[in-house]
Design brief:
Four copies of one chain form a homotetramer. The first copy, chain A, is globular and about 50 Å long. The first copy, chain A, has a four-stranded antiparallel sheet. The first copy, chain A, contains four helices and four strands. In chain A, helix 1 crosses helix 4 (120-139). With 141 residues, chain A is α+β, with helices and mostly antiparallel strands. Chain A has one domain: Beta-Lactamase (2-Layer Sandwich). Helices cover 45% and strands 19% of the residues of chain A. Chain B binds chain C through residues 1-11, 13-14, 17, 39-43, 105-106, 110, 134, 137-138, 140, and chain C through 1-11, 13-14, 17, 39-43, 105-106, 110, 134, 137-138, 140.
Chain lengths: 141, 141, 141, 141
């Protein structure tokens, strides 16, 4: 009987690296953003609301991160009618808005990043830049 | 390092002026309304439910004000499918219903007004009348 | 008629400085913490959950920050019976747990920091260390 | 069979009179307040948050008004242990914090005012001043 299994968890140091990379990308783009990083249990690890970003995006950015962390794929790919059913059934936490991307290490999803306050495309671009920085950092010795 | 930044806040006197102008416009139109004014942080500043206005519009009018305050544009301009996703992802607080208009001073969004209980067009007309009064009051010495 | 009033807002750069100082103090103490920074409108600006910190402290740390931001004083000074009434009347957001301290600049409360996951005394010590760093940073040219 | 019964409702004009009287009393006292007026159905009629009043008191002031409207007596008179049970059983809406006073006309409770952001005694004093103004206005021809 297998009672236990090994797991890999994102550290807060890793979360801060992702947050900083997202902030840098948003600054370069000139669009202030809300940036959230959650772990595989959908619990918040790190968050930043940049000057001028929308306060209502605090919640939506966090939910994008949650959705990416549980699905293992970027947000936005669900059929529109199913997306609303999923949102309703999860009290709004599963969202199909663009801007959520999973954080993967060693083939395992260890969390997600969610970005919100720009257009969906801008949000996604910032999230992707942060994920790219996270992948590069994993390759460093 | 920039720890602080100057900002402008709407006073409660300003909020009452907006509320009174909206009430007058609604009375002139003969349509009782719920009228909400929030600041830039989406916190309620002033509210009035006129005799005969719908009690379920207390919440929707307030959310229209919030949405206008965070987006800096009148509510109603979002594509229908995205509007529902945004509503879900913000626990219903971001709404695409007509009747929310931002309050702007010196080029900065300082809050929003939301009006609800009439048709969307009536709600918007009342909100616009209130914003016009707010702009006129700023020009007075 | 005074429609507007000048105000000072905490930047996200300032919030990150506070967050980093709190993390450093918590690390020096050997106690992982949840650390939240909110602005004067009680909206989240920055957050970090350190490795090993309690996930249920995500919410309580944030509420400590909110309480300090609205009262302008460290949390924990309210009489026990009144503290419970205030918690109930604010849906749990106003808390008397130790670990919330206001962030002040130029005599104005610009936000609050809340720390949670250790003992109340440890939480408060970390919050105070972060506030001290924030005050020192303001004095630098 | 008596299917219907006559009732008296507070108008929004009456609610604004109460709001203005409370604001004046708070200003004279030098303590900014959140002021809420609800009808006998606990639905918000009018609200004002004065400059500098606590954003977390938006909710608690409203709940004080609700509690006074349903009990027909000023808040604060319930035994402490029962007060917490009532708060829990009403999701925090029934509160024993000082500062809620019923609005009565012709022997019937037509609503309540709730004031919050000062000490409990200050909140109550402002609410009582507003109720006194409401009683005086009823006596005028």
């Amino acid at each position: 009987m297998t009672l236990l299994r090994p797991s890999t968890k994102l550290t807060h140091t890793g979360a801060l690296l992702v947050l900083a990379a997202a902030e840098e990308a948003a600054r370069a783009m000139g669009v202030p953003q809300c940036i959230a990083v959650v772990d595989e249990g959908c619990n918040l690890l790190a968050f930043l609301r940049m000057d001028g970003a929308r306060v209502l995006s605090i919640e939506s950015a966090t939910r994008k991160a949650m959705t990416a962390a549980v699905t293992g794929t970027p947000t936005g790919g669900i059929a529109p009618d199913k997306a609303l059913l999923l949102a309703e059934a999860t009290s709004g936490r599963m969202t199909n808005l663009l801007g959520g991307v999973p954080l993967v290490a060693g083939g395992q999803v260890v969390g997600g990043i969610g970005v919100g306050s720009g257009t969906g495309e801008q949000d996604l671009e910032v999230a992707q830049a942060a994920v790219a920085a996270f992948m590069r950092a994993q390759e460093q010795p």
